Amino acid sequence: xxxILLLSLVLILVFIAGCASPKNPExxxxxxxxxxxxxxxxxxxxxPTAGYGVWAPDIFHSHLLQVKANNQLENDLATSYEVSPxxxxxxxxxxxxxxxADGHPLTSxxxxxxxxxxxxxxxxxxxxxxxxxxxxxxxxxVFHLKYPWSTFVFHLSEVGIVPKHAYHSNxxxxxxxxxxxxxxxxxxxxxxxxxxxxxxYGIKPKFKKVTILKLDEDAALAAAKSGQLDLVLIESExxxxxxxGMKLYRMAAMDALTVNLPTIPEMTDAAGKKxxxxxxxxxxxxxxxxxxxDRQTIIDNALSGFGQVAYGAAPALPWSNxxxxxxxxxxxxxxLLEAAGWKDADGDGVREKNGLRAEFVITGRSNDxxxxxxxxxxxxxxxKLGIKIxxxxxxWSECREARNIPTCWVFGQPNPIEFYRYYDSSQIGKAVIGNxxxxxxxxxxxxxxxxxxxKNMEEANRYWQEGQTLAQRDVPYLWIARxxxxxxxxxxxxxxxxxxxxxxxxxxxxVENMNEWFWE
Length: 520
Hints:
Layout: H1 2-15, E1 32-36, E2 65-67, E3 73-75, E4 78-83, E5 89-94, H2 108-120, E6 130-137, E7 140-145, H3 152-156, E8 181-187, E9 191-196, E10 209-213, H4 217-226, E11 231-234, E12 246-251, E13 256-260, E14 267-268, E15 274-275, H5 283-292, H6 295-303, E16 307-309, H7 330-339, E17 352-353, E18 356-357, E19 359-365, H8 369-382, E20 388-394, H9 396-399, E21 408-411, H10 417-423, H11 442-452, H12 457-472, E22 477-483, E23 485-490, E24 493-494, E25 518-519
Parallel strand pairs: 1-10, 1-11, 19-20
Antiparallel strand pairs: 2-3, 4-5, 5-7, 6-7, 8-9, 9-10, 11-23, 12-23, 13-21, 13-22, 14-15, 16-22, 17-18, 24-25
Helix pairs in contact: 5-7, 6-8, 10-11, 11-12
């Protein structure tokens, strides 16, 4: 009951916008902060074996490897590792000073338990290539793969290590990790209170206590104005709002707002589901959109200018081909459409071909304003080409029918496996994402196979880059923008650079290096 009353008091204080005075910098409690960084950070389910940490950082658990500076993999728990010549055996040495938040030493048995448990679950943590794992001694772990899989080391960076001795059915809401932070109080969908893990082997947090609140968009801005928060995630449309005692913080991200453009005419697949789109199935429509739209104008209109143009995977990624080109080539796009038979015969502003109008729906997730706003801005910009796009705000369940109705996705991972999932023909119709463009190109499939079976990262990256160059000619996906993630932070609060492009993580990625934050 005391916890409920305390939470109510905190929320009341937060919502008194306009009445409360901003925090006096001289009265800031130097060893505590209160933040709101998106609804998902207080959603619970912090279980790496169930997929937590794949799409956003996991600050509770350590990993064998982590994506660090310049989006390169670095050792975390691992001190070194070796790969057999056939690419089937990975042998890891792990550090001897790692402990869980309860003081229990982390050993090879915990690593084996974690990956064995994760493999048994159907989650976002993809370990289908893993055959078995064994502990040779307390600090040596060996992974045996079913087949060579060059991205395997990236999958290891996505799964945090859980304690074998303290794992239970409700572990996701009561994690006991070996990361920088430990959970001391949690009220699902309300608040999360963290304290430093005194046993953490890395950089020690500067704060003794972090309170994380869940706030919707309106309440978040009100809380910022009330002076009750030290950091708050805000939508880009509010990013230029002046708030006394706070300043704007922009975090660039690798995630791109991308629309799948089904490459085949509409049909019914073997499972009885609709797939394909007859309008986008014409390459001229896809290519005209790619070169004819003005990405910067779309960013200005949809994201208030807070974003970067995107033409493909982020150039900062080691496996990206970094492809760029000049867009807004309106006349060239029109000629391409005319040559393919798309003409505006009736003068209504929309082209037709054999009685078919250049018109189709694109869905944007109803719980992600950036996606829907981008679709609306894209539709407005595409009018100049004679292409009519109908924006539709839809729940995630409907957006997943993207093989038939294009939708706005967020594409972007440090793991190159995402190219395989989006572009390889074997992934068409698979769960989660599964190549929603129904794209099939034998040349691309062959290069992807070479990338996955490559014996080292450098060789694999060359193939990933070659695959992108081939696929981008067909435009199965319309890459548009990489939105900046915008926050308001208390003046004096210092956030050292991550030295890489993180994923948006629905705003969560900002806390990845929270153990390095400090008051000036």
